[in-house]
Specification:
Blueprint (H helix, E strand, L loop, with lengths): L6 E3 L5 E3 L20 E4 L2 E5 L15 E5 L2 E4 L5 H20 L13 E2 L5 E4 L9 E3 L2 H8 L2 E3 L6 E3 L5 E7 L1 H5 L25 E9 L5 E9 L7 E7 L6 H4 L7 H6 L16 H18 L16 H8 L16 E2 L2 E2 L39 E7 L29 E5 L16 E4 L7 E2 L3 E3 L12
Parallel strand pairs: 18-21
Antiparallel strand pairs: 1-2, 3-6, 4-5, 6-22, 7-8, 8-9, 10-11, 12-15, 13-14, 16-17, 18-19, 19-20
Length: about 475
């Protein structure tokens, strides 16, 4: 018998004697930097849900032991300045498309910027030398001006909210992974006593979107037979401009007009949490942020990354309570003050919004962070989560990375479009800013007291308290 000696080749072409043993084929390591403005919430477990009886509010203890993997979370709520970057990206994308249109000059090699007087300028198109800037031509100026709206009565000029449309696609990994959706009928059933039906028709529902001839956004869910991987690709078109009128519609018989006109646009509010953003718009922001990171993060081509997303309800509560069950609030006490200073932005008294130092929202990070380094997890603005709202809550969820999701179709009853919000807001009394309190809002609703922050699952290992890597 001829003895054969196993030889392994390294990536450099050198041979190593493996002795016939399994030594592993390791992937090249890529160290991603910590996402900007985020802190790491390490893996852990705790009892999710209210842990004490509250007869006044009708709350009964109903907890569930759950565990979470490590994830990154924004230190603060997304601010007006950060969300405005998203709006301006959409604005500039539309302008670039129009600059490529023959009626606007027909050249798509422009970069839009502004001079020190706020006038739009574009570069000369001579790529063989440094690009000098010049003032926009008449056609180019028309393309730029087309994205703005001037009130015919007041003469005020601003971005046209109706044009701020963001189109994005996402691949539904979860649906594609379900065994019942395999293309090969033999792979759908593991039970060998059952003979697969090669003629079985598998129906797939997916979201698609387009703009009709009248310029209306059409988002719809279609159901069709499974035919290819493209059936798991979903498309959505969202108007992403914040609803500035929420300040008027949320409060009747109140003079909130200055907030409607200034809160999102004025630089004095740059570091305040963005409001008037629906769950759908917050989700679109996460998609945009993921794509921005892919294109600007200097990552290897084709590398898969974890997306930015809204936190699950469980992740949010775990992060707010720093993985502990003994506290109702993000701070390490059940009190609301420390040294006569309030610990968050909420409504301390009956009609006295200013007792905590603020009338409406406050700048993010105006109060001390919790033990995880997260700011404003109680009050300021309530925050969207990815979780669909159900009365039974955690009882329906798994005890590992618990969540409950439903991608509501347009034709679904409105009651099925509730999403969980957490943390309470500047307008709420102390009871509603508790970390273990649940609330909901409809996914297309916009409020002056609801904002959001993003999370991103950490890939690899993090050391948990008292644990191993």
């Amino acid at each position: 018998m001829l003895a054969v000696k196993a030889t392994l080749l390294t990536s450099c072409g050198r041979s190593m004697m493996g002795g016939g043993e399994v030594t592993g084929a390791r992937s090249a390591a890529v160290n991603e930097p910590a996402p900007y403005g985020m802190v790491l919430v390490k893996r852990g477990a705790f009892e999710m849900g209210p842990s004490d009886k509250d007869s006044l509010w009708g709350m009964m203890p109903d907890t569930k032991g759950v565990s979470f993997d490590a994830f990154w979370m924004d230190q603060t709520e997304i601010t007006n300045a950060q969300y405005r970057q998203f709006v301006y990206w959409v604005r500039d994308s539309i302008i670039r498309e129009r600059l490529a249109d023959p009626q606007y000059g027909g050249n798509d090699l422009f970069k839009i910027t502004e001079d020190r007087y706020g006038e739009p300028v574009v570069p000369h198109l001579n790529w063989n030398r440094p690009i000098p800037w010049r003032r926009a031509s008449e056609d180019e100026q028309r393309a730029i001006e087309s994205i703005y709206y001037t009130n015919p009565v007041t003469g005020e000029k601003k971005l046209d909210p109706k044009q701020m449309l963001f189109t994005y696609e996402w691949y539904d990994y979860t649906t594609a992974a379900l065994r019942k959706n395999r293309f090969d009928p033999a792979e759908r059933i593991r039970n060998t006593d059952i003979k697969p039906d090669p003629d079985e028709v598998i129906m797939i529902s997916k979201d698609t979107a387009y703009i009709d001839e009248e310029g209306r956004i059409i988002n719809e869910t279609i159901t069709r037979p499974l035919s290819s991987e493209w059936d798991f690709l979903n498309t959505r078109i969202i108007n992403i401009y914040p609803d500035e009128t929420c300040w008027i519609n949320d409060f009747k018989n109140a003079y909130n007009e200055p907030y409607m006109r200034m809160y999102f646009q004025h630089p004095g509010y740059d570091d305040y949490p963005v409001v008037g953003v629906s769950w759908e718009q917050a989700t679109a922001f996460c998609e945009w942020r993921t794509n921005l990171y892919k294109t600007s993060g200097n990552l290897p081509s084709g590398m898969a990354i974890e997306p930015f997303r809204l936190p699950t309800e469980g992740e949010w509560e775990y992060a707010a309570r720093t993985g502990k069950n003994e506290y109702k609030y993000p701070w390490a006490t059940d009190g609301l003050q420390s040294n006569d200073c309030f610990l968050g932005n909420f409504k301390p008294g009956n009609g006295n919004y200013t007792e905590d130092g603020h009338l409406i929202t406050s700048k993010v990070a105006s109060f001390s962070p919790n033990e995880f380094g997260l700011y404003d997890m109680a009050g300021n603005v309530a925050e969207w989560t990815a979780t669909v709202y159900s009365e039974s809550g955690p009882r329906q969820m798994n005890d590992m990375n618990p969540d409950l999701r439903y991608n509501a179709a347009r034709e679904d009853p409105y009651a099925m479009k509730k999403k969980v919000i957490r943390g309470g807001s500047w307008k709420d009394v102390a009871q509603f800013i508790r970390s273990d309190m649940r609330a909901f809002e409809y996914q297309n609703e916009t409020r002056s007291y609801i904002g959001f922050r993003c999370v991103r699952t950490q890939i690899g290992f993090s050391r948990s308290k008292g644990g191993k890597k």
